[in-house]
Amino acid sequence: xxxxxxxxxxxxxxxxxxxxxxxxxxxxxxxxxxxxxxxxxxxxxxxxxxxxxxxxxxxxxxxxxxxxxxxxxxxxxxxxxxxxxxxxxxxxxxxxxxxxxxxxxxxxxxxxxxxxxxxxxxxxxxxxxxxxxxxxxxxxxxxxxxxxxxxxxxxxxxxxxxxxxxxxxxxxxxxxxxxxxxxxxxxxxx
Length: 190
Description:
- With about 190 residues, this protein is α/β, with parallel strands linked by helices.
- Helix content is about 15%, strand content about 35%.
- The strands form 2 sheets. Strands 3, 4, 5, 8, 9, 10, 11 and 12 form an 8-stranded mixed beta sheet that branches. A 5-stranded mixed beta sheet has the order 6-7-2-1-13, covered by helices on one side.
- The longest helix has 9 residues, at about 100-105.
- About 30% of the residues are buried.
């Protein structure tokens, strides 16, 4: 999974799906400055099978509306602009990501991948924050389509109904391949 941080403007982007075109030269893996701040032993995304995550997921509210319809109807608002495909599946997340926060996330394992069973189906959960910040019972789970095969876990900041994406929950290995989600490219440009 490609996760970028531009230290100049404290912006980040998480490529949830395999990019269809090459990342620009300034954001290439070889030019990343992340190893100036993080030991190379931390440059991985831990993968864990945890079939008990369903209890944490069941404690959250499951929206009857898709993420796309909630944004379109202004029930929630995005921090910036999250990219969706024609069917409503999330392609990428644009977010505020200061360098210090990005370094902390990489160094201390906030980006993780879990396999779990939820609603009688196997899912992968890709997290974009620390465990307690992702699996908070106050968060809402939004389906990305009516097929109910991919979801996002969101935190409502309480300010203007702006939500932050905390995790992707997916049974769609074709859109969100396991080998891509487990293969990190942490790109820090400064």
